[in-house]
Every structure is written in structure tokens, then in C-alpha cells.
Amino acid sequence: MQTIWKGAVSFGLVNVPVKMFLATHDHDIPMRLLHKEYNVPIHYSRTCPKCETEVSWKDIVKGYEYEEGHFVTFDKEELEKLASESSREIKISDFVELADIDPIYYQKTYYLAPEETGKHAYTLLVKALQETSKVGIANVTIRHKSSLAAIRVIDGVLSMSTMSYGEEIRDKNQLPNLPEKQKVEKRELDMAKMLIDQLSTDFDPDQYEDAYRERLLDAIEDKVEGREVKLAPDEEVTSVLDLMDALQASLKDLKSTPSDKAAKKTAKKSNTKRKKTGA
């Protein structure tokens, strides 16, 4: 894995030198834009509309438009100075309960591995977080972007999840058509809770698949082999007028045996493995 950042995690006077690695990777299928007539890739150029010439990266700066058509500019060195030395430190200011953080705040997760000189301090922080069941809250600057961060342990490894600041979360009151004091019948609520109970299980990310990616891989395979692409017919969407009927029908559909579910899960994993091999 490629190191994307080096710095240190600190809390109090304790300093833990670490390297940062992405904990996730993009699983999308890459598609390029082609000229339809010749099936060749389209090229992009950085062109100045004023002089109509291509601009090299060394002549490009970042700018903020403070009013229409007027900019203040910053070069790379200025932005690095603004980031300051704190950009190399993940300074934990508070420790909180994981359950207190709403998932809406999370952005991207990174693994943190210790530098050679920081193994003992790294292990100490991991053990302390595990035994207290706490999450460290810090500010971090990566590539000139500042964000809130949650420092926690995942499977014995220190991790950092970047988070949005409170001011970046949109006010829910901006949403249209939110129900106000809507009454729910007790029988409907009991049925809904029963349905939730029937669908409740332990979270296993491996049992979920990207259905669109699977269909796209099938279509790519068909096109490569010169076969006609087979598209599933659109599912007919029926409007449900009676909520109780919908709840009862949903519970009835869940009466499949555990062996059926296990067979479906095994088939899904086998199919996913086949697609990965084919890709």
C-alpha cells in the first residue's frame, strides 16, 4: 500500500509517529470517454480562454472568486505556509463515546501504521482506546484541506475517519414535506417492528453486493464476446394503498427457511468470486 501522509497522533504530551494509508479502495469499473465515430479516447487540455493556449501545471495557481470576475490567488508555497506545522499532527483534543457520533459526519477512513520509533506508543494508544471504548476527536489537515477526525481502533489497528464540521451539515428544516405530528396506528407500528425484527441480523459486509457493477460486468463480457447485451425488464412499480396489506405481505415473504437463505448467500459469494476472476 502507498503511504499518503506522514505525521503523528498526539494526546496530552504523548506523541505517536504514524504513516497513513487509505482503508478503502474504489471498486468502480473504469470507463473512458470516446469519440463515437472512431472509438478513440477524448483528450483534455488546460486551455486559457483569454489567450487560447494550453497552460502548463507550473503556470497554474489556485484562486478564490470574491466577486464575479475578480480573484485573489495563492500559489503552492503560500498554501503550505497557511497549513503550518500542525498539518503534520493529528492532535486529539477530546475523547467521546462512539455511539455519540452520528454517521452523517463520517467521510473517508484511513489506517494508521506506526513509524519504527513509535511502535510502543502506538500499542499503548490502541490498548487504551480498546479498554476505555472511547474515540479520539481531533483536527487534521491533509493536502491543504482541514477536517474534523475520529481516531479509533478497527480490528486492533489504529484508524482515522475524517469528519464534516457541524457547520457543513445541512439543516434538516430545509427539507420539504417533512411530516409534523403524524399519528401512527399501534397495529401498524407493531407490524413494522415485527418486520424489522424478522430482518434483523449481524452485520456482514461480505453478503452485500453492488448489483449495478455485476450487471455492467455481464454486459461488458457480452460485448467483448460479440453477444447481444441482455437487459432485465423494468420492474413494475405498484402503488400500495393499504399500509397494513404491505406490512402483512412483507412478513409473509420472509417465511423462507434458513437453508434457503444459506443457499442464496453461498450462490451470491460464488457469483461474486466468478465476476472478480472475469474482471
UniProtKB/TrEMBL annotation:
<dbReference type="InterPro" id="IPR006164">
    <property type="entry name" value="DNA_bd_Ku70/Ku80"/>
</dbReference>
<protein>
    <recommendedName>
        <fullName>Non-homologous end joining protein Ku</fullName>
    </recommendedName>
</protein>
<feature type="compositionally biased region" description="Basic residues">
    <location>
        <begin position="264"/>
        <end position="279"/>
    </location>
</feature>
<feature type="region of interest" description="Disordered">
    <location>
        <begin position="252"/>
        <end position="279"/>
    </location>
</feature>
<dbReference type="GO" id="GO:0006303">
    <property type="term" value="P:double-strand break repair via nonhomologous end joining"/>
</dbReference>
<comment type="function">
    <text>With LigD forms a non-homologous end joining (NHEJ) DNA repair enzyme, which repairs dsDNA breaks with reduced fidelity. Binds linear dsDNA with 5'- and 3'- overhangs but not closed circular dsDNA nor ssDNA. Recruits and stimulates the ligase activity of LigD.</text>
</comment>
<keyword id="KW-0227">DNA damage</keyword>
<dbReference type="InterPro" id="IPR009187">
    <property type="entry name" value="Prok_Ku"/>
</dbReference>
<keyword id="KW-0233">DNA recombination</keyword>
<dbReference type="GO" id="GO:0006310">
    <property type="term" value="P:DNA recombination"/>
</dbReference>
<dbReference type="GO" id="GO:0003690">
    <property type="term" value="F:double-stranded DNA binding"/>
</dbReference>
<dbReference type="Pfam" id="PF02735">
    <property type="entry name" value="Ku"/>
</dbReference>
<comment type="similarity">
    <text>Belongs to the prokaryotic Ku family.</text>
</comment>
<dbReference type="InterPro" id="IPR016194">
    <property type="entry name" value="SPOC-like_C_dom_sf"/>
</dbReference>
<comment type="subunit">
    <text>Homodimer. Interacts with LigD.</text>
</comment>
<keyword id="KW-0234">DNA repair</keyword>
<feature type="domain" description="Ku">
    <location>
        <begin position="52"/>
        <end position="180"/>
    </location>
</feature>
<keyword id="KW-0238">DNA-binding</keyword>
